[in-house]
Amino acid sequence: MTQEIRLFGAIAVRPAVLALICRFETDTGFTVALKWELNPVVVKKQIEAGEPFDLVITNPNLVEDLTALGKVKAGSEVAFGRIAMGVAAKAGGRPLDIGSVEAFKHALKSARSIAYASEGSSGGYFSGLLERLGIADEVMPKLVAISGGQTAPAVGRGEAELGVVPVTSILAAAPEVMLVGRFPAELQSYIDFAIGISADSTDAEAARQLSEFLTSIAVDDILAAKGVERC
């Protein structure tokens, strides 16, 4: 009987992880069952409520909380990587400069509509950023709230001119969507992710192998191509 490893994670890392899982399954003979939630906090809450898992990928502070609660095995936490915020546009559109803070502000103010993740942590950061930049009054009326992790695809469908979302989601929506660019360095907000092994894993050794595979140097190039930067 093939051993099944239950991986539970935040949806922002899904495109990168999916690019790796087949290779892991082929190399080991294990099967990986995947479950995703848009908001990392929901991942934590479901695990607290008894959701079974062998490996979790979510924000480091949430992995630490789950460790303190006895849900994640102490000492198993390892860094997975970080994801930058980016701007998406429909493929084939005009070039857009967002390389500086002023250029970024101009692009947002000039856009007819901007999609953002209404349920995710990235959406909350973006809303706060508009206030900080002093352009909330001009830009907020043009925002299009998108749920279910569909912000980048919504841009591809023409539901908004631009989209603001983690880079992984933009790259995964190609070829219909293109990455205009990452936020300027002064405005960037990286979303960090870590891996933890369940304290109640049905096969801790298999979970450990998957954790080591996902954090190995051998997969760095694949992760980088999908938008995950190693810290």
Tertiary shape: elongated
How would you characterize the largest beta sheet? Answer: 6 strands, mixed
Kindly, what is the distance between the CA atoms of the first and last residues, rounded to a whole number of angstroms? 37 Å
Query: How many helical stretches?
Result: 10
Radius of gyration: 18 Å
Pfam families: SBP_bac_11
InterPro entries: ModA/WtpA (IPR050682)
Protein name: ABC transporter substrate-binding protein
Task: Give a quick rundown of the structure.
The chain is of the alpha/beta class and 231 residues long. The chain has helices at 14-28, 40-48, 60-68, 101-110, 121-133, 136-139, 151-156, 167-172, 204-214, 220-226; strands at residues 4-10, 31-37, 55-58, 78-83, 85-90, 114-117, 143-146, 162-166, 177-182, 191-197, 228-229. Helix content is 39%, strand content 25%.
List the helices and strands and how they pair.
Layout (H helix, E strand, L loop, with lengths): L3 E7 L3 H15 L2 E7 L2 H9 L6 E4 L1 H9 L9 E6 L1 E6 L10 H10 L3 E4 L3 H13 L2 H4 L3 E4 L4 H6 L5 E5 H6 L4 E6 L8 E7 L6 H11 L5 H7 L1 E2 L2
Parallel strand pairs: 1-2, 1-3, 6-7, 6-8
Antiparallel strand pairs: 3-10, 4-10, 4-11, 5-8, 5-9
Organism: Rhizobium beringeri
Pfam families: SBP_bac_11 (PF13531)
InterPro entries: ModA/WtpA (IPR050682)
Walk me through what this model shows.
- By secondary structure, this protein is α/β, with parallel strands linked by helices.
- 39% of the residues lie in helices and 25% in strands.
- The chain is built from ten helices and eleven strands.
- It has helices at residues 14-28, 40-48, 60-68, 101-110, 121-133, 136-139, 151-156, 167-172, 204-214, 220-226; strands spanning 4-10, 31-37, 55-58, 78-83, 85-90, 114-117, 143-146, 162-166, 177-182, 191-197, 228-229.
- The strands form two sheets. A six-stranded mixed sheet has the order 2-1-3-10-4-11, sandwiched between helices.
- Strand 1 (4-10), helix 1 (14-28) and strand 2 (31-37) form a beta-alpha-beta unit.
- The protein is elongated and about 55 Å long.
- 40% of the residues are buried.
- It holds the Pfam family SBP_bac_11.
- InterPro entries: ModA/WtpA.
- This is ABC transporter substrate-binding protein.
